[in-house]
Amino acid sequence: MMTHPVRRILLLLLPVGVVGALLATIFAPRQAQGEEVPDVLRDPAPPPSAQSRALSLPFVEATRRVRPAVVKIVNFQTDPWRRQLRPRGSGSGFLITGGGHVLTNRHVIADATQLAITLADGREFTDIKLLGADPRSDIAVLKINGAEELPVVTFGDSDRLEVGEWVIAIGAPFNLDSSVSAGVVSAKGRTGVLGESANQSRFSEEFIQTDAALNPGNSGGPLINLDGQVVGINTAIETGQQIRANVGIGFAVPINLARTIAISLLERGVAKRGWLGISVEHRTASQLESMGIRAQGGLAISHVMKGSPAEKAGLKTGEIILSVDGLPIRDARTLVGRLAQAGPDGALRLKATSGAGRETRDLLVALAIEPLFTYGLDVKSLDPAGARERGLPPETQGVVVTRVEEGSIAARADERNRIYPSDIITHVLTYGRQFRITGEQEFIKVMNFLQAIEPPEVVFVLLTKEGIYQVRLSRPENQ
């Protein structure tokens, strides 16, 4: 019963199909048979002009020199449901030694259970060791175990980059290995680019801005000049929060900074910056003009730490720093960025003034190694006897504050946010995370971690006879 209507429809459609086929045959273009082939199809193409060849050659040669040393990095993580390794994402990196040392971004390898590195020639390695990673600069150093005689890059000088200079980015965007894009340096010294990222680290360094096309997967790959030298590590893109692809604004960590961080990671296991030993407050151009000082901006010194490099160089409270290494002051991050690039064994050239009508002076300050910031607190482990003395159960864990450094963040906090000697710290809170302080070693470990991620503020949980209190302190600046 149900088959007849269907059969009728098919029969009705059949003549229409036949007619359509006939019309298509009649009006279709005729296939050429025995036509003469135009000479243009057979003639060899003329060689490129000397002018076009000369324009392209620097790009070709630079790419040819660096491309073999650029690698793709795949981040594998364990699926909590199936307990299997699954690729979380991929990025890029580049070889800096023939023995397999690789520079890349920290966010490329973050939280990886296993890493896989693929070379430009197709070889793949999975025996990878993480030698060090720094959240503040987003730099990581890897080592391919068992690698020998691998191609390597050559470093350039990112300080000598000029705005408008041609640069080339090489990486694996969208898993397209060894992709090349070109553009120019759009700006230098960009700060506050990444802010608080998904991994909740604060980035306080300076970035190179470029319009060379960068896309997901380019992270960690090299930005090179036309001499084939690496001048930056491609790190981020600005998309206007619309799409996850290139819109002509990308950012790279300057290679001079990356090299300093990598050296510190390899030598010390952590990335230590240079330290000046001052507290500063930013002054805008209009604020300085009202003081009779003509400058784009400055940093007013509010505190000089005793015995610091700043004190030894003769810097005084009240002086205003107008430039660092010849760079005008945009904000405090200009100084922070230069301290990171100089490193603990470096030096800074400062131009400072005491005020209107007074001559500026130039100083060369030899930096010291960045100390561990504990917000000005000295502590010792709380033992059972100390707990009993304070009327607490003997099993209470924490640290006792033994000293609050004069002029420190803890000492300069208002009375509602003040920590005093003999207070007991049991927990530290930041970014929604809670760290239990079981003793002095755990306190130092947590302080090291906080220094690496630079949270905007930290909450100390204090325990007293009267109860539990929370003290909120702003993070210290590394200056």
Tell me what you see in this structure:
With about 475 residues, the chain is of the alpha+beta class. The protein folds into 3 domains: about 55-270, Thrombin, subunit H (Beta Barrel); about 275-370, Pdz3 Domain, CATH 2.30.42; about 375-475, PDZ domain (Pdz3 Domain), CATH 2.30.42. It is about 25% helix and about 35% strand. The chain has helices at about 5-25, 40, 50-65, 105-110, 255-270, 285-290, 310-315, 330-340, 385-390, 410, 440-455, and strands at about 70-80, 85-95, 100-105, 115-120, 125, 130-135, 140-145, 155, 165-170, 180-190, 205-210, 220-225, 230-235, 250-255, 275, 280-285, 295-305, 320-325, 325-330, 345-355, 360-365, 370, 375-380, 400-405, 425-430, 435, 455-465, 465-475. Strands 5-4-1-2-3-7-6 form a 7-stranded antiparallel β-sheet. A hairpin with a 6-residue loop joins β1 and β2.
Summarize the structure.
With 479 residues, the chain is α+β, with helices and mostly antiparallel strands. Helix content is 23%, strand content 34%. The N and C termini lie far apart (90 Å).
